[in-house]
Structures are given as structure tokens and as C-alpha cells.
């Protein structure tokens, strides 16, 4: 069994190389590790102003993943659909500003993947507890689909699922560990993707949690 076999997920990452995983999509293993403490502290500060919440999707179900946002725009969902909003609907105030450590990391990752001058104005923060998952979906609520999405994983590892441009395309499984960064641009920007139910575990920095940050140009 290879060290990266998704059935063999361990708390700590094996050695991996930077890898193009699809057209315009790149894995930067451990790219965010050195900033992890600062990023986790900044997540706490964002969540103090805009608490994590379980949004309702149009079907009426609550997401198992809890979310919050920072930046000029925040992604939300309710009975009526999905959209970006300049203010937190729970309190009516603007979302917290995007911390500099977030923006700098997202821009460095984009540049390292060949996307210069990435200027994200939205950062969606997902928080997973064991059992939480994200079904296969496309990210198409952004007005500008030419900008990449930069994703940062922290804490417990997860199995990321990604398929093609059709829901029925073959789904690949990719383990993501603490500090891993993915950059999705070009044709891969609208690929179907999701996350398997999180396995239980105890990470030294996050306990039984996984965080994922996605940096987007919303409008
Ligand atoms: C591929 N988040 O927030 S990150 C999401 O781990 C989301 O929480 C997952 O899907 C998570 O929308 C996956 C990797 C990712 C993020 C956005 C993408 C992959 C993507 C957009 C287009 C294609
Ligand atoms: Fe997504």
C-alpha cells in the first residue's frame, strides 16, 4: 500500500512533491505549515466576530460543516439558495476583514502556481468535526470564474474528492493533510469536488477538528 493510499490516512503527512493534479490545478504540500499557528489564531479572531454556523441549504437540510467568512464578501446559503453577501446575515455587520496572513499566503500560493496578481475578496472558512462531509459540487457562485480558488487545509486530515466537469465523471481521491494548499484555476476551476466524512482523530493544533480556507474572487 502506498504511503498516500487514501484508505491508509494517518495523522501526519508522508513526504510528497508539488504536483499538478489536473489542468490548472496544483497541490502544494505543506505550503502553509510555517504560518499554521498564525492562521489558527486569526481563525479564532474571525470566529469571535462572526461565529461558525451550520447553514441551511435550499433543500432545507443543515450542512454538517460549520462555516464563517472574512473579507469584503462572504458565502452564505439559506432556503432561497447560495450567494455572496457583504454582511453577516446573523448580525448585519460587515464580515471581518481578511487577515494579512491569509491574503499573503493565498497570493504566494497563487503566484507559485502561475496565477499572478490573485486578489481574493472572500475567504470561506469551513470547520469539520468527525463525520462532517461535503457532497460533490461545483463552485460557481462567483461572478468571475477566471480567477483561481486557493484552498488551505489545517488540522485533521481528510480525503478530498474531485471529479471532472460532469457529475458522472470518475472521482479521484486525494488525502489532504495539515498545511496542504491546493490551487484550482483554468479548466479545473469548475470541476466537481467534495470531501469524505472526516475520520476521528486528535491533532496537536486543532484537536478533533479540520479547517479549510478557500480564497475566492467573489465579484
Ligand atoms: C476544486 N471546500 O468550500 S477544498 C468549498 O475541504 C469546498 O472544505 C472543500 O469545496 C473543503 O467549496 C474542498 C478544495 C477545493 C476548493 C474549491 C474548489 C477544490 C476546488 C473549486 C473548484 C475546484
Ligand atoms: Fe467547493
Layout of secondary structure:
Layout: E1 19-22, E2 25-28, H1 36-49, E3 66-71, E4 74-78, E5 81-85, H2 100-112, E6 122-128, E7 134-137, E8 149-155, E9 158-162, E10 172-176, E11 181-184, E12 193-195, E13 210-216
Antiparallel strand pairs: 1-2, 2-11, 3-6, 4-5, 6-13, 7-12, 8-11, 8-13, 9-10, 9-12
Residues 137, 139, 193 line the site of fe (iii) ion (FE).
Low-confidence stretches: none
Bound molecules: N-(carboxycarbonyl)-S-(naphthalen-2-ylmethyl)-L-cysteine, fe (iii) ion
Shape: globular
CATH class: Mainly Beta
Order of helices and strands: EEHEEEHEEEEEEEE
If you average the pLDDT, what whole number results? 95
Q: How many angstroms does the end-to-end distance come to?
A: 44 Å
Helical percent range? 10-25%
Beta-strand proportion: 25-35%
Task: Explain what this protein looks like in three dimensions.
By secondary structure, the chain is of the alpha+beta class. The chain has one domain (15-216): Sandwich (Jelly Rolls). The chain contains two helices and 13 strands. The longest helix is centred in the N-terminal third of the chain and has 14 residues, at 36-49. It is globular. It starts with 18 loop residues before the first strand and ends with a strand. The mean pLDDT is 95. Bound molecules: N-(carboxycarbonyl)-S-(naphthalen-2-ylmethyl)-L-cysteine and fe (iii) ion. Residues 124, 126, 134, 139, 149, 151, 160, 182, 184, 188-189, 191, 193, 195, 212, 214 line the site of N-(carboxycarbonyl)-S-(naphthalen-2-ylmethyl)-L-cysteine.
Amino acid at each position: 500500500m502506498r504511503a498516500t493510499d487514501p484508505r491508509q490516512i494517518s495523522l501526519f503527512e508522508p513526504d510528497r512533491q508539488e504536483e499538478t493534479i489536473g489542468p490548472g490545478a496544483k497541490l502544494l504540500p505543506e505550503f502553509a505549515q510555517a504560518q499554521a499557528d498564525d492562521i489558527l489564531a486569526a481563525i479564532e479572531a474571525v470566529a469571535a466576530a462572526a461565529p461558525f454556523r451550520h447553514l441551511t441549504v435550499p433543500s432545507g437540510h443543515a450542512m454538517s460543516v460549520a462555516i464563517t467568512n472574512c473579507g469584503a464578501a462572504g458565502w452564505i446559503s439559506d432556503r432561497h439558495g447560495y450567494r455572496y453577501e457583504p454582511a453577516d446575515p446573523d448580525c448585519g455587520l460587515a464580515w471581518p476583514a481578511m487577515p494579512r496572513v491569509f491574503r499573503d499566503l493565498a497570493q504566494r500560493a497563487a503566484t507559485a502556481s502561475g496565477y499572478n496578481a490573485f486578489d481574493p475578496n472572500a475567504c470561506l472558512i469551513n470547520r469539520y468535526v468527525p463525520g462532517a462531509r461535503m457532497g460533490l459540487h461545483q463552485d460557481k457562485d462567483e461572478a468571475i470564474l477566471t480567477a483561481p480558488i486557493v484552498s488551505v487545509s489545517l488540522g485533521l486530515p481528510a480525503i478530498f474528492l474531485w471529479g471532472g466537469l460532469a457529475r458522472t465523471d470518475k472521482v479521484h481521491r486525494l488525502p489532504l493533510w495539515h498545511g496542504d494548499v491546493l490551487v484550482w484555476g483554468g479548466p479545473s476551476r469548475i470541476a466537481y469536488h467534495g470531501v469524505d466524512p472526516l475520520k476521528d482523530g486528535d491533532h496537536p493544533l486543532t484537536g478533533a477538528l479540520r479547517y479549510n480556507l478557500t480564497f475566492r474572487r467573489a465579484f
